[in-house]
Design brief:
alpha/beta; 6 helices
Length: 213
C-alpha cells in the first residue's frame, strides 16, 4: 500500500470508528436515562472478531464491526472508557476458545483478542460478563473458561465478574457431560465474588438458571 492509500484508509477508519463511538455514547446516555434509579445493571456487548487478529491491520475487526484496532493502535480502550463513564458492564464472548483449535485460519487468535479486551476492562475498572462461543462441554473448553476468568479477576482490581453459559442444550444432561459441568460450576463458584450462571436462550431444555452447586 502506498502512502496516499495508507493515509486514506487511516482517515476513513478513524472517521468511521469515531462515528460508532458517538453512536454508542448516545445509546449509553439514553439507556442510562431510561433506567435511572431502578437499580438495573446495563451491559453492552463487544463482538469477538478474532479472525485475522494475528495480522498487522486486523482487517476483520475493521470491516465487520468498524473497530479500528491494529498492531499499533488500541481500538478497544476508547470503547471501555465510554462504558466506564456510563457505568456499563462489558459483555464479551470467546472465553472457551483456544488458538490451537483455529486450524482453518492460522492468523486467528481468540486468546490474544480476549486478553486485550480484558486488559482494557481492568484498566477502566469495568465489570465483565463473559460468555462461551460454542455449546461445548469438553474439558479443554471448560478449563479455558476458568483460565480466562482468572486472567480478568484478581490482583488489585476490585471488579465484578460473571459468566453466562449460553446455547445450553439437551446434551448437557448426559451423565458424563453433567458431571463435568457440575465440577466446572463448583470451580467457577469457589470465589464468592464470582457469579456463574446458565443462560438457556435458544435451548431445548427447560432449565433456565443454576447457581453454585
Amino acid at each position: 500500500m502506498d502512502l496516499g492509500a495508507h493515509l486514506m484508509a487511516h482517515f476513513f477508519l478513524e472517521w468511521y470508528s469515531g462515528l460508532l463511538l458517538h453512536h454508542g455514547e448516545r445509546l449509553c446516555i439514553t439507556t442510562g436515562a431510561i433506567f435511572l434509579g431502578t437499580g438495573v445493571k446495563i451491559s453492552a456487548k463487544v463482538g469477538g472478531m478474532h479472525w485475522h487478529y494475528g495480522t498487522n491491520s486486523h482487517p476483520t475487526e475493521a470491516t465487520t464491526t468498524g473497530y479500528y484496532n491494529t498492531v499499533i493502535r488500541d481500538g478497544y480502550l476508547p470503547i471501555l472508557r465510554m462504558f466506564a463513564r456510563h457505568r456499563m458492564t462489558l459483555c464479551c464472548t470467546c472465553f472457551d476458545l483456544l488458538d490451537s483449535e483455529e486450524k482453518n485460519n492460522s492468523r486467528s487468535s481468540p486468546e490474544t483478542f480476549l486478553r486485550q479486551l480484558l486488559c482494557a476492562a481492568r484498566m477502566c475498572n469495568v465489570p465483565l460478563t463473559g460468555e462461551n462461543s460454542f455449546a461445548r462441554l469438553d474439558e479443554a473448553s471448560l478449563n479455558q473458561v476458568i483460565y480466562n476468568s482468572r486472567l480478568y479477576y484478581g490482583g488489585a482490581y476490585e471488579t465484578s465478574l460473571s459468566f453466562n453459559y449460553v446455547r445450553m442444550n439437551r446434551n448437557l444432561f448426559d451423565s458424563h457431560n453433567w458431571n463435568r459441568f457440575t465440577r466446572f460450576m463448583r470451580r467457577m463458584s469457589n470465589n464468592q465474588t464470582f457469579q456463574a450462571r446458565l443462560d438457556s436462550r435458544g435451548s431445548e431444555s427447560f432449565l433456565s438458571s443454576i447457581s453454585a452447586l
